[in-house]
């Protein structure tokens, strides 16, 4: 099982989440089914990575949502 923390570009914000099925989750975002990103459509997937351990994926997601994690993502990932 692989878990993905995708980062979507939603102008002017970035959305960070975690999922097991990236294609399905991205499709749900693009169709407007996710309230957090619906006002910012259209979306563009900017970056994602995979983890074998779901717990590590959630840890990394949480880091990317922190102040230093946001700065890291803007500088290195986006």
UniProtKB/TrEMBL annotation:
Q: Which residues form a coiled coil?
A: none
The record ties this protein, via Pfam families, to: GIY-YIG
Read off the Gene3D superfamilies from this record. GIY-YIG endonuclease
Q: Which PROSITE patterns match?
A: GIY_YIG
Q: Which residues form the GIY-YIG domain?
A: 1-74
Where on the tree of life does the source sit, at the highest rank? Bacteria
The protein here is known as: GIY-YIG nuclease family protein
Q: Which organism is it from?
A: Mucilaginibacter psychrotolerans
Q: What is the lineage of its organism?
A: Bacteria, Pseudomonadati, Bacteroidota, Sphingobacteriia, Sphingobacteriales
């Amino acid at each position: 099982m692989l878990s993905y923390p995708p980062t979507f570009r939603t102008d002017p914000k970035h959305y960070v989440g975690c999922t097991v099925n990236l294609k399905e989750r991205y499709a749900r975002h693009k169709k407007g089914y996710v309230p957090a990103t619906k006002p910012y459509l259209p979306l563009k997937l900017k970056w994602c990575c995979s983890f074998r351990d779901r717990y590590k994926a959630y840890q990394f997601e949480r880091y990317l949502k922190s102040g230093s994690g946001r700065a890291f993502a803007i500088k290195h990932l986006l």
